Amino acid sequence: MLFFAWAGNAQSASPSPQDITAQARFWIDTTGQATIETVSAQGEDTFEPLGKPRSFKLQGAVLWLLIDVPKLDARERMYLTLEASAFTDRVDLYQASTDGGWKRQQAGDHIPVAQWALQDRAPTFALEDSASPGPVWLRMENRPTPLSARVYLISESELQKNRHWAYLMIGGYLGFGLLVMFLGWVHARLYADRAFVAYVVYVACMLGFQVSFTGLGGLFFWSEWAWWNNAAPALFMLWLTASGIWFVREVCAISRHHRGIDRFVVGWSIFGLLFSLVYTLNSTETAFAVLSLYGLLSVILSIALCFWAWRQGERYAGWLLLGFLPVHLAYPFPALRSAGMLPDSWATQYAVLIGSAIEIPLLLYILHRRAKHFNENRTRMRALDSTDPLTGLTVTPVLRLRLRDAIKRARRYGHRCAVLMVELANHSEFVALDGREAGDRALVIAAAKLSRVVRDVDTVCRVADTRFAILVEGPMRSDQIKLLAQHMVAKGLEQTSTLPGETSLRFRVVSAMPPMNPGTQEEAEELEGSQEGEERSILRHLSKKLDELANDPRKMVLHLEQQR
């Protein structure tokens, strides 16, 4: 936005072309067969004053303009340009030559830009003998859209300056658009979201439309293809509209809320794609009316879909509606120009370009926020397979896997790790005091306190409703584990404001240091005879000892010493 404001200020500071449209007189050749000789031989009463820029619905006729060019400074060459008429079918300029004949220059979409008298974005003609150019005639034809005649007189230096500013603005826009397309494609691969694919297609069609609509495509990309230069603005407009509706469908998740509306939206987009073929083969006034109506109804449809989806609970549909707002506000200018209600002007040619320069990054930001939000939800769903939903701790299968690896490392390097089984002994008191919610809150606080006691490499897991298992990676010593168990008990006794009343957490802790050597023959038979893995046997053995510890309410810590 700042770039376009800067470019606009700089352009307004430079010399501007002289609008001589009001000095022109016009005559409409309904047959389309008149030549320059017959037109120039007619009396002045045949031509009517143009007065101000206006649109003409020729419908097969030809518009002739007679312009009396004033005397100009002979030191600089002068030009006539139809600045905002980049999609006029054919424009011929006739100027009397010194030998008594006529010098003809031609331009327009039905002629390859490479064969124009002066290759430019819009029809531009050099005036001979600038000191006294005399009258010139412009023969103009266009169908099926109305023809808007706006003629400027401009010096060679001013023409070059205007070209430079136009290339800078449009080139900057295209470069920015390509960058945004790349970022959109990266997001599509990163999040695997079809909304980003639809966004990339929409931006590509928008860039194609602006390249063709501003005349830059005919000048640089398809200067030899007159048929494509003539059809490109309408085709890109149809593709842009169809892809825009598809984009709205993906972002607003229409299929999730109503199958019938979703089918209608899909059909609407397909119609735009198919109608582009019809319009290319048969560019009549009726086809152009259908094209204009399709564009208008698509704008209304996109607004209605976004608003409806927002009312259905799709919160990003409302933001999408705001993101489209710059282009929706700019759309009436070219639409009214195509309908013949506005003459050619800077606004009719560049309003959508400026609106899309604001819209495109806004839509990407909205999509990024939407994808990030959905990805966080998917991440949390995937995390349910490896974390406890209530406490966020590691689930039991992951603990068993880590414990198995820790035991293998302990045997390989000749040291011991540690496993602690911790029970929240007064959980039932919290439930009785303030309900199940208070009990769950106590478990969450207990998990947080136990996680803060151990290191990041250690594993804390909720193995039962009120029990936690903690794997402390080795090498560890027996005295270190005893101190750690006592520290856990003390940590639980600290007052916490989020717990009801003056209660605190009372932990019971049983610890062991695998690989375990059983203390009794019964324990040896239990460990060796188990069909489970060693890590399962250790956890089951610690849980059994924790049950026995509950019989002695005065004792809170039990360490299972290794038997040598």
Summarize the structure.
54% of the residues lie in helices and 14% in strands.
Class derived from helix and strand content: alpha+beta
**Mean pLDDT level:** 84
Cα-atom Rg, whole angstroms? 39 Å
Number of strands: 17
Which ranges are low-confidence, i.e. pLDDT below 50, for 5 or more consecutive residues? 1-15, 527-531
Name the shape in a single word: rod-shaped
DSSP helical segment count: 17
Q: Helix content range of the residues, please? A: 40-55%
The portion of residues forming beta strands comes to 5-15%
Largest sheet: 6 strands, antiparallel
Measure the end-to-end span: 78 Å
Query: In order across it, which strands form the biggest sheet?
Result: 3-2-5-10-7-8
